[in-house]
Design goal:
alpha/beta, four-stranded mixed β-sheet, about 10% strand, globular
Length: about 675
């Protein structure tokens, strides 16, 4: 019995041990399965090494080649210029390391050069160049007059010399040695401290002025010769006193053929002289980039986004800490797995005017989408100025809401974001993901917007032909000037008639002639002229609903009396609103209608697109802009604040931007003419 019992117990223990080992084995298999599941479910970013810091990345590039030219400035500094920078760097006589980077990505040039030197561990002359000139230079362990060379190139060269010529002058002064370089810097400072060197190139506006002047002279000079000769002949006949004396006076007048020949020779002389004097063909000395250089950055970003949905530009300072980055990755994963969600790609890349997209974030997002080849929401977050743009391509999202209703706190940030080095991008990108989660879904995938292509580098750098653009208006002005010069009485009569029936400015000239701080008399005169022209043209063209609405709104602002526009005491903001409505009404009658009005200066007339523009040193606004303001916002963002329409403050004192100087209907201009009409009706109590 004991033997049997012992045997049974042993067998039971054996089965129990086998069962325990089975449980352990199954538990281990389950753990391995979970590990494999999470390893496959985790995006590829888990296997991607943390990208190096800005200084470490740049040091690695200099370790490969002592001259590094970014791929982010192909319009201003193509990467092919690296050979020219290398050739010039050899002139210094010391090891020279050159970084060509967008100025927007560098917070402190001296500190960055010091950090790169520490990472690289090599002594030499370290030089930082942006898309305009040499910005910083420091010598480590070598004898090189970096500060004096920087000072000399700063004072000796005009602002438009360009980065390559600036670096050439810098190396030239470094090669002189410390004593001569110091003397050169002092001489440059003394010579140009109060008087900058003359610009080397002209811009499109300068070329338009040249074309305008050429047109004036080309018709004004020969036509003046013909008219003055004819007027003199007529005057002699008038004052001859008798038919016999008139005949003798007529015989003394030169025949018509020599006069016509003189006028023709004058026209030829004007044309040849203008061609010789105005011989510029380019607005800068930048070499045209190759197609590969224009697409290099988009390909780099696209390659990074295929590995990780968040791409951080290695040439820029870090703006997302590890916690914010993990949070963003988690939100992206959640949105991808959500109902009717999809991929989200975030590119933390600066947008500059020298880039392939000319600073247009939507255009850059479209290029990256094409390179990645996957539909999704493409987010472009600028680590330099903190702006955020988001575009949906091929997802079931309401694209209009994403394009027009994205809050300014997300796209532009607030005062806290402006004061923060990282622009609070982590917090704002998290808010963007919440906005995406709440964006209404559509029945079918929606294609993203197709932004207009950026101008080609050749067109961007080339000047218009001399006999084009404003040359044609110049011909007309020249003819008018000749008529005025040769017939003063006729000119006086024309001015009197113009006073009785005021003339309006052509639409295409408005952005060039509209004042930024108009006087009260100018506003009264222009408001009356525009409103009178609208009434006249409305009567001639017949009923037109849009024109009728805008005419009625303009009259409501003046209590139904057009003559009130000419009377002193009318509020300037009201007069500007009348001008904008009258011009929009005239445009509707002539088939040039658009609901957009330039939000930088409503006196510029129609707007061509919505754009984030810098309206102050620290603030940006989404405004409709005319063609000239759009070009200014891209080429020279800080040129927009001086172009803002400023009106007297209600309480007196300095003038304010029009949207701060009034709370009336004029403040609705950034949202379109239709909204201005609605505000006028609301104010007047008309429905």
């Amino acid at each position: 019995m004991e033997a049997v019992t012992s045997t049974h117990v042993h067998a039971g223990l054996t089965r129990a041990g086998s069962s325990g080992r089975g449980h352990v084995l199954r538990l281990l298999l389950a753990l391995f399965a979970l590990t494999a599941f999470f390893a496959t479910a985790t995006p590829a970013r888990a296997a991607t090494a943390e990208p190096p810091t800005q200084a470490a990345y740049l040091a690695d590039r200099l370790r490969e080649n002592p001259v590094y030219v970014t791929d982010q400035l192909p319009r201003a500094v193509p990467r092919s210029t690296a050979a020219d920078f290398t050739r010039l760097a050899r002139r210094t006589g010391v090891p020279t390391y050159v970084l060509v980077l967008p100025g927007e990505t560098v917070r402190d040039g001296k500190a960055l050069l010091g950090a790169v030197h520490d990472r690289l561990g090599r002594d030499g002359l370290y030089v930082l160049v942006d898309d305009h000139s040499v910005t910083d230079a420091t010598a480590y362990g070598v004898r090189a007059p970096a500060d004096d060379a920087w000072t000399a190139q700063l004072y000796e060269l005009p602002y438009d010399a360009g980065p390559l010529l600036s670096f050439e002058r810098f190396t030239e002064v470094v090669a002189l040695g410390p004593e001569k370089a110091s003397a050169r810097a002092e001489a440059a400072r003394a010579t140009y401290e109060d008087d900058e060197p003359e610009a080397m190139y002209i811009g499109p506006s300068d070329r338009r002025n040249q074309s305008f002047l050429t047109g004036i002279l080309l018709t004004g000079v020969p036509l003046s010769i013909l008219l003055l000769a004819a007027y003199g002949h007529r005057a002699r006949r008038r004052y001859a006193g008798s038919a016999r004396k008139a005949d003798r006076a007529a015989r003394r007048m030169p025949p018509a053929l020599p006069v016509v020949a003189s006028a023709a020779l004058a026209a030829v002389a004007v044309a040849l002289t203008a061609t010789a004097v105005f011989d510029q063909t380019a607005s800068s000395g930048t070499k045209p980039p190759t197609p590969a250089e224009m697409s290099a950055r988009a390909e780099r970003v696209a390659a990074g986004l295929r590995k990780d949905p968040v791409y951080r530009d290695p040439e820029s300072p870090r703006v997302l800490d590890a916690r914010a980055l993990d949070r963003l990755h988690q939100r992206i994963d959640d949105f991808r797995r959500s109902h009717d969600g999809g991929p989200v790609y975030v590119a933390l890349v600066p947008q500059t005017s020298g880039s392939e997209s000319a600073g247009d974030a939507e255009l850059f997002a479209a290029a990256v989408h094409t390179k990645v080849g996957t539909d999704g929401v493409y987010v472009v977050a600028d680590p330099a100025d903190g702006t955020i743009d988001a575009v949906s391509h091929g997802l079931r999202l309401d694209g209009d809401r994403l394009l027009f209703d994205l809050p300014d706190d997300i796209t532009l940030g607030d005062s806290r974001a402006d004061e923060s080095d990282d622009h609070l991008l982590g917090e704002r990108l998290d808010a963007l993901m919440t906005f995406l989660d709440r964006t209404p879904r559509t029945d079918r995938p929606v294609e993203g917007p197709s932004p207009a292509p950026a101008p080609s580098p050749a067109e961007d750098n080339a000047l218009p032909p001399l006999f084009a653009t404003d040359f044609w208006p110049g011909l007309m002005v020249g003819a008018f000037a000749a008529l005025l010069l040769s017939a003063v009485p006729a000119g006086v009569t024309a001015l009197v008639l113009r006073r009785r029936r005021p003339a309006t400015e052509p639409f295409e000239r408005l952005p060039f002639t509209a004042p930024t701080e108009p006087s009260a008399s100018w506003l009264r005169r222009t408001a009356y002229a525009e409103l009178s022209a609208l009434v006249r043209e409305f009567t001639e063209h017949g009923e037109q609903p849009l024109a009728r609405d805008r005419l009625d709104a303009a009259l409501l602002l003046l209590d139904g009396d057009p003559g009130r526009a000419r009377r002193p005491g009318t509020d300037p903001a009201t007069l500007v609103a009348v001008i904008a409505l009258a011009r929009a009404g005239r445009a509707a009658l002539t088939g040039q209608d658009t609901d957009l009005c330039c939000g930088v200066n409503p006196l510029h007339g129609a707007g061509v697109r919505l754009s984030h523009v810098r309206v102050s040193a620290t603030g940006r606004r989404l405004l409709p802009v005319c063609e000239l303001c759009r070009d200014t916002a891209i080429a020279e963002p800080l040129g927009i604040p001086p172009r803002l329409l400023r009106l007297p403050a209600p309480s007196g004192g300095d003038r304010l931007p029009y949207y701060d100087a009034t709370d009336g209907p004029l403040t609705a201009v950034p949202r379109g003419i239709a909204r201005v009409v609605e505000r006028v009706r609301e104010t007047a109590g008309v429905h």
